[in-house]
Each structure stands twice: as C-alpha cells, then as structure tokens.
Design brief:
The chain has a single domain (about 5-365), classed as 4-Layer Sandwich (Chorismate synthase, AroC fold), CATH 3.60.150. Helix content is about 25%, strand content about 20%. The protein has helices at about 40-50, 110-115, 130-145, 185-200, 230-235, 260, 330-355, 360-365, and strands at about 5, 10-15, 20-30, 65-70, 70, 75, 80-85, 150-160, 165, 205-215, 240-245, 265, 275, 285, 285-290, 295-300, 310, 320. Strand 2 (about 10-15) and strand 3 form a beta hairpin. The protein is globular and about 70 Å long. It binds flavin mononucleotide (FMN). Flavin mononucleotide binds near residues 127, 240 and 331.
Length: about 375
C-alpha cells in the first residue's frame, strides 16, 4: 500500500492490520551507537495501551514489542530497526455486522471506493491500532532527542469536549497519572464526568492534544515545501481522527492585528536573541527560532458509537447500524503519546537533514576546515 512510510533521512514504515497476526514498524536511517532495549520502547507503548481506565476502550492488548533487528549488544547498529507487536485480543466477531456496511465517520466507504476490497476486521490499516507502530518507532527517536540532544517533549490533553485545562493549574506530574492525560486535577474531574455522560448516552466526544518541545536550536527545518511547521502538520494529520492542526496560537492569529501578534525580539543579558512572546509557536519561516515549539492536534469524537446510525451497505441498500464493539469514548488520552512520538520522528529527521545545510559544518564533519 502506498503511503505507509514517513520521513526523509530517518524513515519509518509501518505494516500490519489490527486483526492480523501482528503489526510493526521498520525504522531506517537511525544513527548507530545509541543504547536501546525493548524496555525503552515498552514504556511509551504502555501509555497508548487500551483497557487502562474508564476513558479508554476495555479491549485488552498487551502490546509487547520485540526488536527483531538493528540492535546488537544493547546498541543501535545503524541498520534498519524492525519492531514487532503481536496482536493478542482480536475478537473478530465483534466486528461481524460491519463487513458489508459502511460505518459513518470511518474509512470503510472510501477504502472500498479506492481498492474495491477491504479488511473489515476492526478497520484494518485504518484502525487506531496502527498508531502503536508509530509509537514504537517514535519512542526510539524521542530517546535520541532526550538523551543525546537534551530536547524535551511534553504532550498532554488540553481539552475534552468543552472542558479545557487551566494553564494556571498546570502540573506535569499529572499527565501520566490522570485518566484523561490532563495536567490539571480539576479539569480532569470535569472531563471524566463528561466522558461518562457521553458513554451513558452511547455517544463519544472529541478533544485536543497539545505539545511543547523545548531545547530545539534555532534553524531546524526548511524554507519552502519542507517547512518544519508543514512537516509537523503532516505528521499530526496522518493520525486517524485528527481534523485540525495548530502551531503556536494557531487559528486565533487570523483575528488579530500585526501589532498584537508579532513576537518582538530583544537581546538577553547572555547575548542571545530572545522573543518577548511566542505567538509563532517557535517556528518562523519554516525554521525553529529557538523558543518552545507549540503544536496542537484537534481530534474528532470516536466514530464508532452504539447509537443507531443511518448508512448504506456495500450493495447499495439503506440500513441502520449500531456498533457494539469495544471502543474509546474519547480518543485523545491514548493519542497523546502518538502525537508526541510522531513529532519526535519529525524533529529528529529534520535535525538529521539539517546537518548538510552548511558548507562549514560539512567541512568540520570531514575535518577539512
Ligand atoms: C489512538 C487512536 C485510537 C482510536 N480508537 C478508535 C476506536 O476505538 N474506535 C473508532 O471508531 N475509532 C478509533 N480511532 C479513530 C479511527 O481510526 C479514525 O477515525 C478512522 O480511521 C477514520 O479516519 P479519519 O477520522 O482520519 O477520517 C482511533 C484513532 C487513534 C489515533
């Protein structure tokens, strides 16, 4: 299938269907010599795993990763890193009634139009399960960013439905301990109640993931087609159910005056160029400007709901559909780590690409200066 690979120098390819024997990823172009073991990756996969709280599907998947290649004696070898996750909890019969019926909000209709044939079990390639592969590969990129380059990625739930976290209450330690992934205890309680109310009505709800990436040097990214904001938007839009991406203040800038929106520059005591504000979200002209990179992904409500919905069968008959499989009432809490690791892959790739941008740095690398 076309479109299963992402990246330029650091390139990830994912494979597998949600109800096949296994899913996985091949990460090529990763530098040799970084210490890596399965536990490094598993910690990230465990954040995406279903069945952990009331706001995620009760489907049980162990999501245990196996490294098949690219690591020797505990260090990356520079060769393709192959990662395998066996599918354990498949329950194909849960999806029996959607074999010939198009689920509203899903890829069933468009998949059939494109290929004339589809793996209907749990959405096949279009399943949220595919994102486990990206998390596994992206965990490796994030480890490099953190351990080798000192770059910190902090992603969390900004809002669920109309419940939004209050930045004044921001507590990073709550991201991994609240079921919603909100770094605000009060907002988490309200969001939990909202999700429960939706579940009781056999409904689902949308939300927003926000991320801050700190420690990125200025000048990463390109000026035209490969702008860093364009690359990050590509990465986030490639995740199922994302319907809008924001960088910095995002869509709000369209309602402002230039005088409000520009981030004034000043010279800090250290001599470095700083900005008084960060409406731009750390990217100017497609290149990082040295301040925090701020991104947001806006998720639609989970399309699979148990309420009766009007739809069409493959052979063109009108019908009503109720979906009774096990689905997340809200996608956002499990998608946080997906957004984070997709941004890690994107950023590390852009940083590797950037190494050939200047003659003097190429000369320095080959010690010819
Ligand atoms: C982490 C994650 C989990 C998901 N879980 C579900 C789910 O349980 N049920 C469902 O109907 N959709 C789920 N989705 C969303 C569908 O995969 C997605 O909406 C569908 O493929 C259609 O693609 P589109 O929304 O991008 O148009 C999930 C998405 C992600 C990223």
């Amino acid at each position: 299938m076309a479109g299963s690979s992402f990246g330029t120098i650091l390139r990830v390819t994912t494979f597998g269907e949600s109800h096949g024997p296994a899913i996985g990823a091949v990460l090529d172009g990763f530098p040799a010599g970084m210490p890596l073991c399965e536990g490094d990756i598993q910690a990230y996969l465990d954040r995406r795993k279903p069945g952990q709280s009331a706001v995620t599907t009760q489907r049980k998947e162990s999501d245990t990763v196996e490294i098949l290649s690219g690591v020797f004696e505990g260090r990356t070898t520079g060769t393709p890193i192959s990662l395998l996750i066996r599918n354990a909890d498949q329950h194909s019969k849960d999806y029996g009634n959607i074999a010939d019926t198009y689920r509203p909000g899903h890829a069933d209709f468009t998949f059939d139009q494109k290929y004339g044939f589809r793996d209907y079990r749990g959405g096949g390639r279009s399943s949220g399960r595919e994102t486990a592969c990206r998390v596994a590969a992206g965990a490796i990129a994030e480890k490099f960013l953190k351990d080798v380059l000192g770059i910190d990625l902090c992603f969390y739930t900004k809002s669920i439905g109309d419940v939004e976290m209050d930045p004044a209450n921001f507590d990073r330690s709550l991201i991994l301990s609240t079921p919603t992934g909100m770094p605000d205890a009060e907002a988490n309680e309200k969001a939990m109640a909202l999700v429960e109310a939706c579940r009781m009505k056999l409904d689902s709800v949308g939300g927003v993931v926000e991320g801050r990436i700190a420690g990125v040097p200025a000048g990463i990214g390109d000026t035209v087609f490969e702008k860093l904001d364009a690359r990050l938007a590509h990465a986030l839009f490639s995740i199922g159910a994302v319907k809008e991406v924001g960088i910095g203040d995002g869509a709000a800038v369209s309602r402002r005056r230039g005088s409000e929106n520009n981030d004034d520059f000043y010279l800090a005591d250290s001599g470095s160029v700083e900005k008084r504000s960060n409406h731009a979200g750390g990217i100017l002209g497609g290149m990082s400007d040295g301040s925090d990179i701020v991104v947001r992904a806006y998720f639609k409500p989970t399309p699979s709901i148990a309420q009766p919905q009007e739809t069409i069968t493959r052979d063109g008959k009108s019908t009503m559909l109720e979906i009774h499989g096990r689905h997340d009432p809200v996608i956002v809490p499990r998608a946080i780590v997906v957004c984070e690791t997709m941004c890690a892959l994107t950023l590390l790739d852009a940083m590797l690409v950037n190494m050939s941008a200047r003659a003097d740095s190429v000369a320095r690398f080959y010690q010819r200066s």
